[in-house]
Request: fold
Amino acid sequence: MYYFYILRSKKKGKLYIGQTPDLKNRVKSHNNGENKATKSNLPYELIFYCAFNNEKDAINCEKYFKTTSGWKRLKRMLQNTLSK
Reply:
């Protein structure tokens, strides 16, 4: 399986979007400070993920949600989670 995921910084509330074949270890590596892009806003919580049978589909999902219209859709999809 391949996963698209969204993390939220518990420190600043910032969101991080990514994709990986190993979700559990990827989240752990973010929280261990092993990723330059997320290191300054530790710790993170996983707030959303979806699984795909194909890596290309997970990559395409990540690319879409990194667009302006993708971010808008994400904020609508997760409005209750993000308002906490």
